[in-house]
Each structure stands twice: as C-alpha cells, then as structure tokens.
From TrEMBL:
Coiled coil: 47-130
Membrane topology listed for this record: Single-pass membrane protein
Family, as annotated: Belongs to the ATPase B chain family.
An example molecular function term from Gene Ontology annotations: proton-transporting ATPase activity, rotational mechanism
Name of the protein this chain belongs to: ATP synthase subunit b
Subunit field text: F-type ATPases have 2 components, F(1) - the catalytic core - and F(0) - the membrane proton channel. F(1) has five subunits: alpha(3), beta(3), gamma(1), delta(1), epsilon(1). F(0) has three main subunits: a(1), b(2) and c(10-14). The alpha and beta chains form an alternating ring which encloses part of the gamma chain. F(1) is attached to F(0) by a central stalk formed by the gamma and epsilon chains, while a peripheral stalk is formed by the delta and b chains.
Compartment(s): Cell membrane; Endomembrane system
CDD domains in the record: ATP-synt_Fo_b (cd06503)
C-alpha cells in the first residue's frame, strides 16, 4: 500500500469524523455545558438572594424583639399603675366603710345612752314618787303625780 494514499484516506476520514462530530456530537455537548453553566449561575444568584433575605429577616427579627420588649415594658408599667390605682381605691373604700361604721357605732352609742337616761329618769321619778308617798303616808293622786313626774322627766 502506498503511504501517500493511506495518509490521504486517513485525512479524509479524519475530516469526515471532525465534520460529523462538529455537526451532530458537539452541539448537544455545548448545549449541556451552557445549561450547566446557567444552573450554576442561577444557584449562585439564589444563594446571594438567600443571604440578602436572611440579613433582612435578621434585621426584622431584631426590630420585632425591640418592639416586643418595649411593649412588654409598657404593659408592665400599665399593670403596675392599675394595681396602685386599685390599691388606692381599696384603701379609700376601706376608709369610707370604717367612717360609716364609726358613725353608726357613735349613733348607736348615743341612742343607747339616751335610752339609759330615759330609763334612769323613769326610775328616779318612780323612786321620787315612792319616797314622797312614804313621806306623806297618804294616798297619792296618780293623775296629778303623773303630770308631776312628766315635768320632772323633762327637767332631768
């Protein structure tokens, strides 16, 4: 076999193989590589976006925690204020109840003293009549003496 013919035949087969590869094999490989590069780029963009979203979420969490602390402080202050108001109201109500009870007791004591004075007047009047009856040792006119005793009660 001739070396030149073999070399030419090999060159023709090589160029046919290169042309076939460039027309049918190379485009799907390039397409697969481009798709893979696009997926990698999309993944990197998604990772960057996720980092930005995470940073934003962390800022929001910090802000919400601050607001929650402020709200808790406000609620606590409001509760303490309401508790002190309730205590003050309870003290005022207790003072009113004590004053009313004191007034009722004083009124009852005054009424009891008045009743005791009235009973004492009646006893003094009856003792005076009994004493006068014994002194005079005579019959006492009950009607005349009742008027006398009534006057005596008024004077006592």
């Amino acid at each position: 076999m001739n070396l030149n013919a073999t070399l030419i035949a090999q060159l023709v087969v090589f160029f046919i193989l290169v042309a076939f590869t460039m027309k049918f094999v190379w485009p799907p490989i390039v397409k697969a590589l481009d798709e893979r590069a696009q997926k990698v780029a999309d993944g990197l963009a998604a990772a960057d976006k996720a980092k930005a979203d995470l940073a934003l979420a962390e800022k929001k969490v910090v802000e919400e925690m601050r607001k929650a602390r402020e709200s808790a402080t406000d609620v606590r202050a409001s509760a303490e204020k309401q508790a002190s108001e309730l205590i003050d109201e309870a003290r005022a109500e207790a003072s009113r109840i004590i004053a009313a009870a004191r007034e009722a007791a004083e009124g009852e004591a005054a009424a009891a003293a008045e009743r005791a004075k009235e009973a004492l007047r009646e006893q003094v009047a009856s003792l005076a009549v009994a004493g006068a009856e014994k002194i005079l040792r005579k019959e006492v006119d009950a009607k005349a003496h009742a008027d006398l005793l009534a006057n005596l009660k008024q004077e006592l």
